[in-house]
Amino acid sequence: MPLDPPRPPPLRGLLWTDPCGNPQGRDPEALMRSRYAAFALGLGDYLVDTLASTHPDHESPRQELARALSRARERQRFLGLRILHTEEDEGGERGEVLFYARIFERGHDVSFAELSTFVREDGAWRYAEGVLVPGEKLPRDGEGLTRERFLALAR
User: How far apart are CA 17 and CA 8, in angstroms?
Assistant: First the structure.
């Protein structure tokens, strides 16, 4: 299965924002895809705006954090995203997305898989945390990676 190319940026009035420009993912997968696109396009403010209030990155000054997140695109090439698993709790307040991101940095493959946790805050999905496994521990392009196998590799 080929990797999905990055999606367009999350712009005001489109899928990932409300009419006032506030980030809104219709579900954890949509927010995950929009965050991947934001990394690829250097949209640091969007990445900060879509963090859960409990995320430890909020300890950094907002402008510094947004600037640092924006700079990822200067050194990395985002070549594709594959969603491997999604799940939401019955109440619709918590969800998770297992994905494989194909990324190169200065000619080196730095691809990885991550199991991301999302929470709903004030009616909007936000990125809370993630567990990452580097590409060298994974099957090629994350092919066949299940949640259970990922968790075993993450130990």
Answer: 13
How confident is the model over 33-58, as a mean pLDDT? 93
Nearest to 25 by CA among 128, 147, 146: 128
In contact, 135 and 112? CB cutoff 8 Å: yes
Measure the CA–CA gap between 75 and 61, rounded to whole angstroms: 22
Determine phi and psi for 110, rounding to 5 degrees.
-120, 30
Would you call 64 helix, strand, or coil by DSSP? Answer: helix
Task: For residue 109, list its beta bridge partners.
Answer: 104
Six-digit token string for 7: 């999606």
Percent of the chain surpassing pLDDT 70 = 84
CB 126 within 8 A of CB 51: yes
User: What per-residue confidence (pLDDT) applies to 141?
Assistant: 81
